[in-house]
């Protein structure tokens, strides 16, 4: 694994527990973790149960006993690590967004396509796809329970930057993060909308906004944010982005992603309205899927609060009895389970780097649209 | 109409607006209102649109142009007014609880049965039966959507007495009100449970409690409460009552009624659990009925939030388009509509005085159980 | 009153009950209602308690005993009736949207300004301003509880056109209605956003969409929709509109209005995110206001579910005790109460025709933006 | 660890991950798991990462390299294992309820008190105490935010036995499980009420009911239930229990625990109403605590939905950023963390066996009350 921030903790937990609950084709061995700060990465390795720590990710790639590289670093290093790993014949799990630019993402997707021909696979970590309520939602769409989807609305609301005194982090630096709310949380919303609908966004009209342009620099990192120093830094990414989207001749989409939604901690919501039904989800209530069946008798129509904790629901049967909810990190475990299963089956894991590239192109189109007065901008 | 307190306002509104939305067999004329304080009742008559005001309810009964007496006075006067009215050949709508004792209620029910033979009808005002969501719930039970009902749980939570400095009102005086939370809000819960299930409570085990035994006397009434004076009065009724109930060989019921549920303003909740489904309702969200269909496919089972504002739902077709909710007083309008329709059809309106008596017997059994260490006490 | 559709029923109810609950400077007399179909309007007058019915609104304006004209007709006739009434010295309450075009609205606003100098006042019926939860929200904003508002998000979701077989009505005919979801429900969202924030929308980028372009013509009207005939008609208005909005240098707004949101009957939601707090409202739960206080201690921060039924909340003190919710039509009653109070005080009632014109200009800018590839379009 | 059912999985997960997120005084080593079926327990050991498996729990006790015994077996074997372990100088974590009878629990508590003097500690696994929202609730009560608590209401609603065709398991056999819903889920509700209020239940009046007295025997276990065989078995425990409780001179409690609440999977709810505030919790929404502050200004009073995912909330700082919810098993991890920390500090972990005994006495009193017509029965 490369990287040992918040995402590193989530991924490590996935590798640690997957085998205890799921039948895996092969049991993962947590070989080594790479990071630039030797002491810090050694501490992380020790804490999280990695066999070893190294200070250069290249060491991981050179090792014969490592079959898979899990990339949890900031976006600017994804391209180099992923391509090197794939070329060295190692499977790759790469955190989203795939890269910091379309050009990088294209190179990565190209490398992934080449590797796949050799049975070496790459997956991008849009983990929310594997929340059971979302898995169930996808199943209902595939079963045609929504009919033809007409509208998709999604907001991803966070508020960790609502306080103007909250300090800079690498996530606010365009050179490291690529973009702000758009690439971080907006990427999730885009992937989810495309995944759930089974349709691609083909054009966008958007606007990005930075509400707080200067913030104290970071003295010490804690969680997503940290302790402020006395120096002032410049925010070079968006705090919020709004965009409309066309899915070809199909649905019309409405999206908002923001880090300034006071009082909303991590509210990724998505609603799909179709001719025969509708679905609604909110990550702040992640074990619940709301489903509306427009074909039901009029008297008892209404959104159904499905507690997605039934043994028949995706991934749930391996965990607890009904009504015993899962948490944030379980989606990462499901991701690892599916990845290992697909690799074993010689099957391309989803979302592929091509899907990651697709999201990257949408992000890029939104940015270009925002730069040209929100003009409708085709994706690609 | 006799009485002009908070209930008088609600009943007046019902008489005022029923004809504008519903097709009534006869249009109500708001002839006269009676009350002991001449100036106050005259002001109420003027404000609410009654043709006249009088200071003795007997005057209403003597008038030939009055066909129906609506009783909104405190419970201690129900028996005299109702019996006099029925004997004078006037239909009666009487606020709940029917009376302050079983003995009174029996006399009233007897008078009502006698009058009904002459085509003169009496109804007791358990208005919550006519909230559309409750009407729909009853319909679903009648359709067998719940299968066999096994458990009923109901809480009626208010908090207007949570503040120990809140003053006395007639509702805290046993000689006027009969009982406290039990007879006031508990009576609603009992009626609703029996109405929705279609079953009678046959035995109870209960406990009543007064948390605040002394309160300032009332200087001036405002709404349910008012402004405190310097004198201290003694609370002679219960602040809260808990009871379990048997419905013959059928369901087991759990009930709580309280005026001390801090933060709950008027939360009458009821849930019925059956072999094939369940229903849940909360008056603080009165336009919603929650329905669970246990016979639905496992994947999409969940409580359905039915917005009871569809034209097919009881009474709703006469009001607004779907999604435009009704308020508290609409149930009183529906009560008047059904009462007039039944009278015109020569049909006993529901709930009858016998049904009111039934509730009274349950209240009495709870009080006796509470006085004998919560021993199971048969109703009657 | 001119017009006797669904809005006519709501307005009639307001005139009927306002005096019974509120202290009005003058008691309204429901003199006459005008409509083109003599039989139908006579029936409406009889049902709703109007003294008389006429077939030409001009008759209302000629009468000396009529002081106020309430306009509930489709949007195409607003301009003529309102201007004639104001010129005749009659106060005017006009349903929203003010008119079907900016040009019409300008003439109306100009007439209203002239009349106001003579003590004759005009008001536009954005009734949602007078839902108590909204009144409370406005109060909290005015008190500065949100700090500086950064983002406003509003969706107005309905689904009465989700069924492609649902027939045409005048609301789907551009010549009568001006626009579709945009002018009907979008106008409410715009007014509410401007009213709550106290800020004007200055530029918009939007897109309008008609999902179902042909529908059966209407055979018979029932509620918002009705019974379909065999003929096919063409929908000439939008089913849905999405738009982003700038409030000068202030907040960024995100809006959606649609009649195709399967399962959402009348869900007008608005959320304001500020530096110190946030507010959220959903009309499907209209007695509730969600408030988040970002200045509260970290441990107990969270959205507060305020049941807007307290005596201290706007308009509520005149109705029922806490926890006894109000319904859709109560806002119309509050509108009438405030209108009569302002007229009596010689004070311009709000929202004025100028405010209605402001909304009209926003609607017009959205339509122009939609016609020019969602380019940012200044309002005016 | 002894036992390898559903609880074994949850406990194993706790031992597996505690060190990765928390700073522990000593790192747990998962030495061995005991179970009667050699093949099954070997598979469990392998799957869950235990070093070894044995078929007799006595082997665990005899080993010098084992410092702590974790008891996850059915209730009938708790007494022997716990006492043997404590006498052998091993710390004990024992699943709830402590035992199948008061007599057994007394022996265990006595052994625990003796062991504690030697620095050997015992803890009973009421895991819900360590859900962060519950930890926060306890903190608010301790801070006096509720004032004097007057009423406690708790329901624990499950529906896994609502289907009369659902088969027998050891949980329905009184000789193995002690009691049914009462001892299983009711025990949690009792512990939680006492823990949150800081008060002991001193008397109860209750009724137990078995709705379905015969069920197919179990052919194969799956989760809480399993596959039915052709034979019929007799249910010897309660499906539901209702009880009222007195907390000395303090609050009045109302409790229901049931496995027949159609549509409710695992809804442990508790609400505390005090003079100054109230708290409400529902395990089906386990990351949320509802708090009502009655001392707040009237205009903005309302239940606050606190997302208990803040770094300042108990145990949360070691996990994810705000808004990233935890799941069912996290409480078990917190249990292990606190247990190890307390052992290291030479401090009695909570809940102690004495606290477990206290719950056992309440369960026993309820059963005796149910057998004597719901008469009020003192605890002990």
Describe the structure.
The structure is a homotetramer of 380-residue chains. Chain A has ten helices and 16 strands. With 380 residues, chain A is an alpha/beta fold. The two termini of chain A are 32 Å apart. The longest helix of chain A has 19 residues. Chain A has two domains: 122 residues, NAD(P)-binding Rossmann-like Domain (Rossmann fold, 3-Layer(aba) Sandwich); 209 residues, Dihydrodipicolinate Reductase, domain 2, CATH 3.30.360. In chain A, α2 links the parallel β1 and β2. In chain A, α1 crosses α9, α5 packs antiparallel against α10 and α8 packs across α10. The mean pLDDT of chain A is 96. Chain A has a nine-stranded mixed β-sheet with strand order 15-14-13-12-6-11-10-7-16. Chain A has a three-stranded parallel β-sheet with strand order 3-4-5, sandwiched between helices. In chain A, strands 1-2 form a two-stranded parallel ribbon. At the B-C interface, α1 of B face α1 of C.
Brief descriptors of the model:
homotetramer, alpha/beta, Dihydrodipicolinate Reductase, domain 2, 2 domains, globular
Describe, in short, the structure shown.
Four copies of one chain form a homotetramer. With 380 residues, chain A is an alpha/beta fold.
Quaternary status: homotetramer
Largest interface between protein chains, with number of residues from each side? B-C, 41 and 42 residues
The H-level CATH homologous superfamily of the largest domain in chain A, spelled out, is Dihydrodipicolinate Reductase, domain 2
Low-confidence stretches of chain A: none
Q: For the residues shown, what is the average pLDDT of chain A?
A: 96
Structural classification of chain A? alpha/beta
- The outline of chain A comes out as globular
Q: Count up the helices of chain A.
A: 10
Query: What's the number of structural domains of chain A?
Result: 2
Distance between the termini of chain A: 32 Å
Q: In which range does the helix fraction of chain A lie?
A: 25-40%
Total DSSP E strands of chain A: 16
